[in-house]
Amino acid sequence: MNSSGNTGAYATAQNFTPAKTKTMKKLEDLLLLGNPQLYERSEPVSETELPLVMSWVVDLHNVMEEIRAKYGFGRGIAAPQLGIMKRLIYINTDMPLIIINPEITGSSSEMFEVWDDCMCLPNLLVRVRRHRSLTLRYLDENWQEQEWFVEDDLAELVQHEYDHLDGILCTMRAIDGKSFKWRR
Ligand SMILES: [Zn+2]
Known about the structure:
Blueprint: H1 7-15, H2 50-71, E1 76-78, E2 88-92, E3 96-107, E4 111-116, E5 124-131, E6 133-139, E7 145-151, H3 152-165, E8 180-182
Antiparallel strand pairs: 1-2, 2-3, 3-6, 4-5, 5-8, 6-7
């Protein structure tokens, strides 16, 4: 899937000592639907910010764990969801992945429909249309360029998180006025 193997990302998130950083975020720091910051475009990460990226990733990791424990979902999170207005995504499905300054360099013309969820609107499902597959180019935690081809559920996840970097929520991509469902 990913050419780098990405064992480094996991080691980074695990070995960092969150207690020592002032920026440690909690579930209460997660921005919720309606917060104007969620509609802002995030800035690229610069190479000099790489040490900060590591602390941001710990925050993203920890808050996603809290979401998983509370709501039972969460495969990825984008930095702006915590008010960190940087083009950084943290995905943790079978393996943690740190994605810096991503670009979607190609996407399939074939689309599919999915009920999307989002940590910023935890009980709301939104019916959206996503590209079936895409290619993502990004920098990893070692500032090395990576290319990742994703399909289906991962493609949908990447498009969702990428949208966050541009200030786009899944609510803004709802297929129609009935594309909303409340989850108990
Ligand atoms: Zn989201």
